Amino acid sequence: MAHRPIYLDHNATTPVDERVLAAMMPFFTEHFGNPSSLHAYGWEAEAAVKQARATLAQAIGATPEEIIFTSGATEADNLAIKGVAEAYFAHGKHIITVQTEHSAVLDPCQYLETLGFEVTYLPVDDQGLIRLDELEAAFRPETILVSVMAANNEIGVLQPLAEIGQCCRDREVLFHTDAAQAMGKILLDVEAMQIDLLSFTAHKLYGPKGIGALYVRRRAPRVQLAAQLHGGGQERGLRSGTLYPPQIVGFAKAVELGLALMAAETKRLAELRQRLWQQLSQLDQVYLNGHPSQRLPNNLNVSFADVDGQALLLGLRSVAALSSGSACSSARTAPSHVLKAMGRSDDLAYASLRFGLGRTTTPAEIDRVAAAVVETVQSLRSLKV
Ligand SMILES: *Cc1c(COP(=O)(O)O)cnc(C)c1O
Fold first, then answer.
1. For 346-372, what is each residue's pLDDT tens digit?
2. What pTM does this model have?
3. β-pair type (174-178, 212-216)
4. Please, what are the domains in the chain?
5. Which residue, 1, 128, 285, 313, is most buried by CB atoms nearer than 10 A?
6. Closest residue to atom 9 of ligand 1, CA basis
7. How far is the centre of ligand 1, averaged over its atoms, from the C-alpha of 129 (Å)?
């Protein structure tokens, strides 16, 4: 294979772990049955799905019946937000979310606004955290849902889920969290954190793409949800479509591994991230984006003053596969909405890099990338004067 740059974009996606792939393989060719079929082929697929569902439920302190398989976190977010809106609009049409959410949350909210819902987009402080007093002040009698992400995909910041859960439960308002980035990196417990709906996905955690799940609380309170896909009635009627056993088995294996490795990986990745930051912060005018410690262990997001963001990414392209803070705006249409919400200027928001470290990242890779970033920033700055 041709030489490829060092992969430091693990907040975008991750490779499938070999152990995950091995667990999936028999379900493509040998155990290929439809879990809904009432014969031996169906039963063996159904048994594997059942076991995977139990593993996923246990990982977040839920029961198996509370796990609804989807195609990923985008679909889970859509099902949670639109599904609650459609089921509860008679109680009220107000939703609270945050300016720094993923588009899979923001866009369904904006869509609901076109249908007459009102949405409060909470601001964040300069480290990317919401303020609980601002959340408390945003509640209205007609508020039906609060959606706040567990970990941000650009800056890795961890929102205070347990405190938010308590605020929502006190007011009998449902609490949804997008945990696509957090799953397997921090402990998630839907009881302790009083979470009613939780979205997650396999491909951010060394599992396959195209599979995710929504946790939907069944008791105290029992969450009502309107299905967004209608058909064969799978997943208790909440998400029709033939289940995909290879992906489901791989998803569960990925989560199982993620939890088993979590303690050691958290420590290792945090040390690598510190090693990276130490080298980058030798430059003048570099700024860490997001809270310094209340963040994912594998994420570092940095802005560089006096540098063109596009030129920086281009200059590093052969060394490292990175994302700009404005991941989705490579055409420079808009600076990152996350960095803007934290009060960064347009220039600093454009000139940002997101380093997503992963299971295979080594100290030598960190040193090579850090040296290349320092050199590129210095040469772009020297060209500028
Ligand atoms: C990746 C991601 C998503 C989208 O997940 P898919 O499974 O790719 O649909 C949603 N929210 C966050 C925070 C993410 O990081």
1. 999 999 999 999 999 999 999 999 999
2. 0.96
3. unpaired
4. 6-14+262-384 (3.90.1150.10), 18-256 (3.40.640.10)
5. 128
6. 74
7. 19
